[in-house]
Amino acid sequence: MQTNPPIAHLFSQQRPLRSIEFFPPKDDAGVEALRDTAAALRKISWDYVSVTYGAGGSTRERTAQVAHILKNEHGLTVMPHLTCVGHSRAELVDIAEKLYDDGFRNIMTLRGDPPKGSTTFVPAADGLRYANELVTLLKQRHADFCLGVAGYPEKHPEAPDLATDIANLKRKVDAGADFVTTQLFFDNDAYYRFVERCRAAGITVPIVPGIMPVLSLKQIQRITSMCGATLPATLTRRLEVAAENPAVVELIGVEWALTQIRDLYRQGAPGCHLYILNRTNSALALAAGLASNVKVVVALSTDKAAAPINLYGATKLCSDKLFIAANNIKGDRDLRFSVVRYGNVMGSRGSVIPFFMNKKKDGVIPITHKDMTRFNITLQEGVAMVMYAIENALGGEIFVPKIPSYRIETVAKAIAPNAKFEYVGIRAGEKLHEEMITESDALNTIEFDKYYAILPSGCNFNKYLNYYHAHMVPEGFRYSSGKNAEWETVETMREKIKKYVDPNFVVE
Q1: What is the per-residue burial (b if ≥16 Cβ within 10 Å, else e) of 357-372?
Q2: Could you tell me which of 151, 231, 141 has the C-alpha nearest to residue 196?
Q3: Could you tell me if 205 and 168 are in contact, meaning their C-beta atoms sit under 8 angstroms apart?
Q4: 193, 153 in Cβ contact below 8 A?
Q5: DSSP string for 133-200
Q6: Each residue of 57-95: b (16+ CB within 10 Å) or e?
Q7: Per-residue model confidence as pLDDT tens digits over 21-60
Q8: How many angstroms separate the CA atoms of 235 and 213, rounded?
């Protein structure tokens, strides 16, 4: 049996620690998915991971199961959470003894949230009321338990003021807590002020900042409303603008978190604990950014940038050219600039799908032209492409995915087969078909696996061909939505709409 080392010993190394938090899935299928997530995240050398307990202790059995998997199957130092909620003193002792016997030496010690539907914490019969009591109990059982406790930079929602909250935190530390992990925050000044006040109150243990990359505006608004954290106005505005494009929202969230973490490290924070909600991509993106100190910059482009006929497309093409040209002025820095170019993201603001789904209520679907086509890509495919570019770009590539096309009329038939189709004509600035690789681009285009890559003029082609195990596209090649080899049908569109846009979608 593997016994985890105490996390407190890691802080003595005087380097910023890296840790992440998992939450237990609700079913066996979720456990298997978590195994995959953990395997993917093993690419990064995490100092430790934590496993939550669930509101009201609802996932207590899964916590032990997941903690066991992460420790014994993946070789991680694991800190299971343990809360007072719903447990008697004897039950807490029993859980602690089982964790100890299984080789766990680190526990995140919490009072816990009230069960769902309740707003007031009520201890169980012969239970504990406060986290400091749990710290005392665990230290009495095993003095070598390393115990973490929670801190709230912007005050616990139930505390009357921050001074009272810090006094409560000191009780936990005085009882034997070895370090503090903070609730999430988005303004580093809140953390710095909190640490300063904690030190003034006599709290000397490490205070680890907790960081959550935003994945959705609605989700983070719900989370912050529960924990009392504040969303800065600048971040809120960015998220509101991109709210209908989840891929962009996630990138904004990762970029904001990266900025936070770099600043925290510069200011001497003992580490950062990432709340990733079991999402692999955001954690990998953050780790890649931190590990490399930004070695790869990937710009998000669009099929409108190929042979543009409107201002939007022209500015995107200009952006593509500038990013590629940046590789020529980077000097001796280990820095690469590349571009990803893709089609319409299903369900995004630029997608016709939500528009048609809304219009079907009227019984009339406006269609520009019966032959109009577009490229189709799911959000998951778009994010995977960005991650591929971050991990593999040599610099100067414009990555283009191999994705199917659809006819606008096919989408309308998939969503509202019984509606009247009204053909309204192509609007100014629209194309009948989109291109992602023009015939001129083809002279510099290679093909491999799931992608094409348009290479910069004058580059060493063999370097790219060998690295990607690629080949040149044939002379005269064009990648147009109207001449594609792969097409969506009414049936495949319905399947994808239900899977990627609206799980409640039905054909009426």
Answers
A1: bebbeeeebebbeeeb
A2: 151
A3: no
A4: yes
A5: HHHHHHHHH-TT-EEEEEE-TT--TTSSSHHHHHHHHHHHHHTT--EEEEEE-S-HHHHHHHHHHHHH
A6: bbbbebbbbbbbbbbeeeebbbbbbbbbbbbebeebeeb
A7: 888 877 777 788 778 777 777 767 789 999 888 654 445 6
A8: 12
The model's pLDDT over 396-449, given as tens digits with 9 standing for 90+, comes to: 999 999 999 999 999 999 999 999 999 999 988 899 999 999 999 999 999 999
Report residue 246 as tokens: 């989840």
What is the rounded distance in angstroms from the CA atom of residue 96 to the CA atom of residue 106?
10
Which helix (H) or strand (E) segment holds residue 249: the answer is helix 246-266
**Dist. CA 20–CA 276, nearest whole Å:** 7
Residue 111 vs residues 291, 293, 401: alpha-carbon distances, Å: 35, 38, 49
> pTM (2 decimals)?
0.60
CATH number of 296-501: 3.40.50.720
Q: What is the pLDDT of residues 291-316, one digit of tens each?
A: 655 678 899 999 999 999 999 889 99
pLDDT less than 70: residues of the chain: 1, 43, 54-60, 114-119, 280, 287-294, 332-333
Catalytic-role residue among 21, 133, 154, 397 = 21
Cα torsion at 80, 85, 89, 94 (round to 10°)? -40
What's the rounded Cα separation, in Å, for the pair 303 and 349?
A: 15
For the chain, residues classed under CATH 3.20.20.220 are 7-289
Among residues 281, 278, 254, the alpha carbon closest in space to that of 384 is found at 281
**Residue 491 annotated as catalytic:** no
Give 7-289's CATH code, choosing from 3.40.1350.10, 3.20.20.220, 3.60.110.10, 1.10.10.10: 3.20.20.220
Please state the three-class secondary structure of 66-121 as a single string: HHHHHHHHCCCCEEEEEECCCCCHHHHHHHHHHHHHCCCCEEEEECCCCCCCCCCC
Strands 451-454 and 445-448: antiparallel
First to last CA, the chain: 57
Length, in residues, of the chain: 508
